[in-house]
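Hi X.,

You mentioned you wanted examples for the new student's onboarding notes, showing what a folding record looks like when two proteins sit in one file. Here is a clean example. The first protein comes first, with its sequence line followed by its structure tokens.
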Amino acid sequence: MDNENLYEKPANKKSTIINIAIVVIIFIGLFIYMINVDGIDNIVNLLKNADFKWVVGGVFCIVFFWLCEGITLHLPLKKLYPDQRFGESFKVSMIGQLFNNLTPFCSGGQPMQAYELSKTGKRVSDSFSMLAIKFIIYQMALVLFTFVVVIFQFDFFMSLMNNFLWVALLSFGVNIFAIIIVILAGINKKIISSIANPIIKFLGKIKIVKDTQSTIEKFDNSLSNFNNQFKFMKAQKALVVKMFLISIVQCLSYYMITYMVYRAFGNSGLAVWQIIPAQAFLLLVMTFIPTPGAGIGAEGGFLLIFNSIFKEGTINMSILFWRLYTFYAPIIVGAIFLAFSNKKFKKVKLD
């Protein structure tokens, strides 16, 4: 057996419990805030009068988003491991959704996905490489899609984001920079090594990194493997284009959730193409909020951006439903997949 398949589970139980507690506190805090601002009567009235065809539309959007996520993970894995089944890829994808939302900066998703894939004999380095390539393609689709929609709705976007334009420009810049760095790692690993190695050595001197030389060697091995996988993907142009197009559709399905929520509570007057640019901007900003699922910052950002275009008294309920779709639902569904995965794995190990 490859030593990499002995990869240990990355999740730390204590930190996971803390993050879950933060998620619960955010939910309770949001609910208490709604009661204080809107009152029980208004909340009940909004729920009674909600247009549930739009509520169901939101459910379809998030499920379709998950399916696209599973497909873009499955395609490169299937190319590398012909026996890979979509059900397995989708399960791993949903577990990634769970830990992305439970950890700051979505940092826990990829390690958990690599761990889950290692259970079925996948090399950890291959898994991380495929996940990194998937990240590049998705981020490119996200930035390009956002840019195109903003251009087509530029006047409306500027009027809505006038006070936050510098944040929008910074978000675009950082995301483009991240894409460039990961592409550089795939094209020329020497450049990345020349940047990373001094940083690792510095972290070793200030005792953040324990074994400097071992860390450098592990990083270099991972970089070499990613470089090889990147070359492999470069030769699979049709596959990359397919993943990119699916990622575009995935972005659209995510952005449309906000429009579904907008319509569910009696709002009208704006087209879906006017809602999407602001939601796209909010998603870019959320990647820099250092709480599980960008908690508090996401709700606050939604309030600041959309408060002026939602009817009075509907914004807080809209925030709750938006977060139910995009934050709490992935946690619940991902946890179900994780529970069944652990149960199945334990059974196999006992056999």
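Then the second protein repeats the pattern, sequence line and then tokens:
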Amino acid sequence: MTILGRATKEGTQRYRERHKNHCDPTFFHEAGELIASSIGIGTLIGEPDEHNKGLLTKAIVESVRRGVNIIDSSISYGCQQSERSVGEGIRSLLELKEVSRDELIICTKGGILPHPEKNRANWFYQNYVEPSKFSINMKDLVRTRYCIHPEYLQDQIDRSLKNLGLQTIDIYYIHNPERQLLKITPDIFYDKLRAAFEVMEDAVLSGQIAAYGLATWEGFRLPVTSREHLDLARIKSIAREVAGNKEDQFRFLQLPLNMTMLEALLLPTQKIEGQSIPVLEAAYRLGIIPVASNSICKAQIAGQIPENINCAFDDNLWTDCQRGLQYTRSAPALATALVGMKTIEHIEENLALMNISSLERKNFQEITDSIVQELSILANPISKLWSYLSMLPKFIGRHCKIQR
């Protein structure tokens, strides 16, 4: 049976109220009209076997019980199995009356083929090119993996709704659209994105999704000269044009941010009114809500944080993964830091942060300064961020009270 409803202002506020007695006041952030936990659960499943599917379903249930109300998935994760695990977890929570649908922010993505690497092109041809009901052709497939053709995206929305068992997806992301730029020119790309946004706006009107965005890996972290660079102001302008005389629903942006990937915070990859600024600030100015992926660098941060940086964190944090997650979720203007969790041990470790305040402005700035110094010493390519540190105090100052 389809689960009716969607996340609402009243529902997410109710969820926060129910958990406020066992979490710090800074744990929940504003995300537009919604209230989101500053830590969200990611669902990149690994091998889509029964063991991992079971672990993921249990992790979703346990995370929601403990105070996480934002769940992020993709139709490509585990070849659709992650979405199905999310659906099972939500149904279990609703049946037990432990949560209401309007309290949960459910997110997923489309644009990457939900098929194993072997024979992806053949699968795409048989399912989308050969059937006469589609006008899709093989030129719409980039590197045998990426497609944002309007008919393909609509099909992916339909499939995701079925996998999740939902009436409405709260946030639907177009997944890694910058990969299209490996094959086509920017002008053609933005025309294709316009057609994709038409599908998104129509899906909002029909109630299939509540809002949409872009989930990227490199597009907003790369300099303007890069082939895969994405222009957020141009993209927002396209969304506004597509929406016409109503407000567009291009509201969210997902991209990597962690202690070793600081581009979203510091590199001026975007231009707004003639000023070059980092994408986090550009998103804020344009009314777009940023969400961090890869918040602890897939746990590779463990054992890698120097002692001089570790000592700047709360003494109650006992692991590098906690420190890394604390740093990411404290970034200015950020709604949520996503982290993959499949075991109770990982959930307990990450959600220990519920009882600890987000980093204050001065502390966040000092830690960022120390990180960039350390990366410069290591001659990491990110050392060029050093020259942009002067931008940080002003940006943090503008946003120190946002979403806290």
